[in-house]
Amino acid sequence: MTDEQIREAIAVAPKGANIKGVWERPMHLRKQYRGIPLTKRTDAVVRLISYDHKQVVIEKRENGELPAENAGLRGMEWVWHPYLLQSIKTGKEYIRLERGTNKDAKPKVVYLLDGQKQTEEQIAHMVLASELKSSKSDTFNVSVESMIQLGHYNVIDENEEMGDVEYA
User: At 120, which helix (H) or strand (E)?
Assistant: First the structure.
């Protein structure tokens, strides 16, 4: 998705609602496997929220556990607060997301080698160990260019590419 498409998707998404997010990115490979077209596609329930408006953050700022003002994220600057960030070093844009509140909605991950679905066991020897660790953080950044769908805003036809992938 482009910056403009992300902004449109955010504009029509209900505030604080659980929405669908789909993104795909190249995986970080071990030296001997570099150049292999291996990607990771994630389909998850996410939320677009302002960290500063979360009740727990407000309470922590009031009692002094957190600084009075948000100091931002190291190495990043806001392009459109609180949704879009830009890396100071690379200029790459990211969208700030939070995990959805539905505990039953687990993220679905598919590994694609040259467009063909692979299991984690099949690709584990090719990727860096950090690629297979799951994050414990509730908030995370996703590259704008990696986004395929945000809410009802989908940049590819469901039948064209998304429909070909079955999630485990």
Answer: helix 120-123
Spatial contact of 17 and 47, defined as CB atoms under 8 Å apart: yes
Distance in angstroms (rounded) separating the CA atoms of residues 69 and 31: 42
CA atoms in the 13 A half-sphere facing the CB of 102:
13
pLDDT tens profile 78-113:
899 889 999 999 999 999 999 998 888 889 999 999
- The b-or-e profile of 27-42 (16+ CB within 10 A means b, else e) is bebeeeeeeeebbbbb
Burial of 15 per CB tally in 10 Å (0-12, 13-18, 19+): exposed
Segment 39-82, tens digit of pLDDT: 999 999 999 977 777 788 888 889 988 888 777 788 999 899 88
pTM of the predicted model as reported, rounded to 2 decimal places: 0.83
d(C-alpha 77, C-alpha 93), whole Å: 10
- Radius of gyration (C-alpha) of the chain in whole angstroms: 17
Distance of alpha carbon 148 from alpha carbon 156, whole angstroms: 7
